[in-house]
Design brief:
Largest sheet: 6 strands, antiparallel
Family: Belongs to the thioesterase PaaI family.
Number of helices: 3
Organism: Pseudomonas oryzihabitans
Number of strands: 6
Strand order of the largest sheet: 1-2-4-5-6-3
CATH superfamily: Hotdog Thioesterase
GO molecular function, one term: 1,4-dihydroxy-2-naphthoyl-CoA thioesterase activity
Helix content: 10-25%
Keywords: Hydrolase
CATH class: Alpha Beta
Protein name: Esterase
Structural class: alpha+beta
């Protein structure tokens, strides 16, 4: 059974990333299945820290992007929007070049919050970062009239 309220559409999601941090860091929605969403990001001068390794903050930006998009696809967007509330990350392997891939899987999909497990890996499939994202599911305000 699928978790999606709205099926992911790579073209729509690509347009949603235009003119954002995600576009600047060359983030791309790559794939999905019934219970996960996958995105990737470039590892180059845009995402390096001074030692030439992938910046931890860039990994966290990718994790929050893919998890937040996944949450938005799990709710009725005519009634709710989703915002990141808390994120943590453990960086377990350095990356110098190529792309990293992030796979977001839900740990909890509640009425007012979602919790995502997001695993980043390098092009060889080695784990580089483990992140947990909590997303607030917020009702859209309606006019009282």
């Amino acid at each position: 059974m699928s978790i999606w309220q709205t099926l992911p559409d790579p073209e729509d999601l690509g347009r949603a990333l235009e003119n954002t941090l995600a576009e600047h860091l060359d983030m791309r929605i790559e794939a999905w299945d019934d219970s996960s969403l996958t995105a990737s990001m470039v590892v180059d001068r845009r995402t390096h820290q001074p030692m030439g390794l992938l910046h931890g903050g860039a990994s966290v930006a990718l994790a929050e992007t893919v998890g937040s998009i996944a949450s938005m696809l799990c709710v009725d967007r005519s009634r709710f929007y989703c915002v990141g509330q808390e994120i943590n990350a453990n960086h377990v392997r350095g990356v110098r070049s190529g792309r990293v891939t992030a796979v977001a899987r839900p740990l909890h999909l509640g009425r007012s919050s979602h919790v995502w497990d997001i695993r980043l890996s390098d092009e060889e499939g080695r784990l580089t970062c483990v992140s947990r994202l909590t997303v607030a599911v917020v009702p859209l305000q309606r006019d009282a009239s």
